[in-house]
Design brief:
This protein is mostly helical. The chain is about 65% helix and about 5% strand.
């Protein structure tokens, strides 16, 4: 059986994907310092001159890698948040909304560090792209929170959603760095902390005047609609060792 020859467009796309796979491998194994156009072309098995048919330079290659990871990650995160919204009592679905980005960062830690540095370094040739990427994540999360029913009708509502989105991103970045550096070796423990934080900041968005700092989450997931009924039995916030008694009292486990 003979195979059908690739068209010129298909062959070009295949070569581009080979270059990107080679670049990911080098970046993951050796870091940014090991990523050169010569090495990428050699690892992909193509001539050095052919590299420039697909990418203008190393920076354009890095942007393409960031685009690939970012597009897939944003899609996966949006789907995870949708699934969590559909089943608010399923805490594992909520945990998955935090686990997915952490796992993506761990797959390509050098690319993550590069983007994080560039975002805060205006002199970096990667700066504009890194800022745009961070803005895309923020916009996706703000849109999802608004679609879940959080207030977004006024300027202050929108600003608060953006602040929460930035806070989620900053906390996730900090936890990811701690995990990559070995300070927080258990990824599931990191997810636990992010989930615990989420119950607080998402409750603030609901503008419920009856809510107080001692109130527990009224639902099993922060993406669900808040109930106004007071709790009738002690409840435990996920993984933070705090028990909320009926009437708003708080007691530490073991106290």
């Amino acid at each position: 059986m003979t195979s059908t020859p690739l068209t010129r467009s298909e062959a070009k796309d295949l070569t581009r994907r080979r270059l990107m796979r080679a670049a990911f491998t080098i970046l993951d194994e050796e870091g940014e310092a090991g990523l050169t156009t010569v090495r990428v072309a050699r690892a992909a098995g193509i001539a050095q001159s052919s590299f420039y048919v697909h990418f203008k330079d190393r920076q354009e290659l890095l942007r393409a890698l960031g685009d690939r990871v970012g597009e897939r990650l944003r899609g996966a995160m949006r789907e995870a948040r949708r699934r969590a919204r559909e089943a608010p009592s399923d805490r594992e679905r909520h945990r998955e909304t935090f686990r997915i980005p952490l796992e993506a960062i761990c797959r390509h830690p050098a690319l993550f560090r590069l983007g994080l540095r560039a975002r805060h370094d205006p002199s970096s040739p990667f700066h504009e792209f890194a800022v745009e990427s961070a803005g895309a994540y923020r916009a996706h999360l703000v849109a999802d929170l608004a679609s879940f029913g959080f207030p977004n009708g006024g300027e202050s509502d929108r600003r608060r959603l953006e602040m929460v989105a930035d806070g989620i991103g900053a906390l996730s970045d900090a936890m990811a760095i701690g995990h990559i550096d070995g300070r927080y070796p258990d990824l599931e423990e990191v997810v636990d902390v992010l989930v615990a934080f989420s119950y607080g900041y998402l409750r603030l968005l609901r503008k419920d005047p009856a809510a107080s700092p001692g109130d527990p989450p009224a639902s099993s997931g922060p993406f669900s609609e808040r109930s106004t009924d007071p709790p009738t039995a002690p409840t435990v916030d996920p993984n933070i060792g705090v028990r909320h008694e009926p009437g708003g009292g708080v007691r530490r486990d073991g106290a």
